[in-house]
Amino acid sequence: MSDQNFRQSTMTPKYRAGPKDDLIWHGLDSMTLLFHRPSGITHMLADPAPALLEVMDSTLLTAGEIATRLQARFDVEPGADTDDIISARLEELAALGLIAREAG
Prior knowledge:
6 strands; alpha+beta; 27% strand; Outer Surface Protein A, domain 3; 41% helix; single chain; three-stranded antiparallel beta sheet
């Protein structure tokens, strides 16, 4: 593996939310319906995905920084499991096109 490929593979990804006006929120029992205006798709989200979107903005943030914001705003306990769950949900939101993922 070249030095450049190694550096790229070990960089921490960062995430950025799109404009808040691109999303229309509607609570539905324990789920959240989220209409994404640019794609025209309505997504059905379960916790913690809506909370992740709520604490994000247009600033590039690592999963750890997002976890810190979640802990400050919601009743979220820090820990390895929490970090893994947050990272997995961020990847899912990026795959849906609801947030952007960039190399850190």
